[in-house]
Give the backbone structure.
Amino acid sequence: MRTSFFFLIILASVDSSAQDKKLTAETIIQNVTIFSSGARVERSSAVTIPAGRTEISFGDLSNQLEQQTVQLKADANITLLSVQTVKDYLSVRKIELEEKNLIDRANDFKDKIDLDTRLLDVFKNEETMLIKNQSIGGQMGIKASDLKESLDFQRQRLTEVYGKQQEIQKRLIAEQQELQRANLQLMEISKKKDSVRYIVNALVESRETRTVNFQLFYNVKDAGWFPTYDVRVNEVNAPLNVLMNANVFQRSGETWKNISLLLSTGNPNDNATPSLLQPWMLGFYDPSVSLRGQANNSSISGRITDNKNQPVAGATVSVKGSKAGTTSDDNGFFKLQNIPGYSSIIVSGIGYEQREIIVKPGYLTIPLEASTTSLTDVVVVGYSAAPESRASGLGISDKSMKKREDMQTVSVITQFQPTTMIYRIDDKYTLETDGKTTTIGIKQFEMPALYDYYATPKIEPTAFLTAKVVNWQDYELQSGEVSLYFEGSYLGKTYIDLTSIADTLSLSLGKDNGIKVSRKLVKQYSSSKFIGSSRTETKEYEIIVRNTKRVPVNIRIADQYPVSTVKEINVDDIKAPDAQIDKETGIVTWTIALQPGQERKSGIGYSVKYPKDRRVVLE
């Protein structure tokens, strides 16, 4: 009796499961919130569901989907019993045929290259045999007619062999070029990732037949945005003209067609847990350790790009001769701290030629050339293993600079969240899943700035213009790369790292040839004298600054006198009229206001006394 009752329960359960209906929902992407790394996709779908239980499949979703972020909402009074995310291994890649054709084409050219290479070896071997076969007739000699016939044959055959070799070599060059084109196109297609491999299955229950509007949310990887700025200065008494650009890219596996974009400064992958303090162990001060640390406290930062000015993610940046190193982020940016000045760094990336350059502290852009050797490897190891450098950024050329100059900003609404900022863009955009950058001018404004010039004529007779912005926090800036323009000329790039800036934001605008600076030794006041066992050298320099611009300027001039570190060397008779002197460092600074066309002279002098049998370098 018990067995029969249990059997009935199983039948009822099976029958109930068999009654579940199955529907496939077509979804449309409505909005996408793009973070600094990753994005959140919002899809919508209207589904008519019958009474009872229904299993709804939301397919054609990104293969970059993060399963733990899936959320499903409905606008009707229904019961959501379960949501399950599964991989759809039966889905067909949209670009599979195109990729297959390219792979077949590349392999066909590889076969031709292999065959022609072997055929070329055959003719080279025949050439060797013909040349070596110079002994004719042996000791018995040979008739003149036979000799002529033999020489004619050898000459004719060698001519044919050389012609065949030349023909094959030309063919090999053409085949290598076609193979390279096929591999380059294959790499470009492999960036798109159009394979769609996720399905969200939802089991719902409704008391009646009704049409329900569903909203499906999920996060995807391999997408993001980063800000860049165009900063223009027309005159040194005018505000900074700033254009803030949003550089958006995605390679999520799905095309976002005609959608509204929300750009968030947040990153869902950031650590949400605060760091904890560790015990601070105090010991005695060791000056040698301090000096060693100070010798390596410089830092460099920059961006790794390809030859199209697109950023290279995951590139390795290492300091030659040390263990210091880092990798570039999704947007190609990197930073190295506490490295010796003017070190050699080695930059390498998968699919790119390695570069070694000598760098100095500051910001720089490092372009990498694509490796032609690795292109063949795409076919050998499979295109899916090809390097995937995230494409982002904007190239700087005459054409691109003109395009930027004419760029207009779009209508943007800024929303402030407790920990992030969101830019809501009214215009609709279509973003292909190819990783290429879409640059959107989201904000243009003016920032009042204080301008001054700085010059160290002892090192370089040039004045550098600096703009200082006091209340930069009021302009909702984000860390990013800056393209600088002064009086219509492109100066170069720098990087604003707002995490390390205090109340004042300083931007170096480069050299200004409108300020003339010179430094020369005044010989009539400079001398070298011997008194007893000592030698005294006197130096005096004249510094001339001239403003050839049409506006008044402020300039800081820095020079120095030597500081003795041993008692046998005495530095005396220091002269620097109207200057601020730091006795510990020997740095001398003048702050000068110059009217248009005005010239100002300053001077610095000192004497150094030391034993005459020793040598002291004073320049």
Remarks:
- Residues 96-137+144-190 form one domain.
- Confidence is low (pLDDT under 50) at residues 1-18, 288-296, 373-407.
- The helical segments are 2-18, 96-132, 144-190, 287-295, 372-381, 398-405.
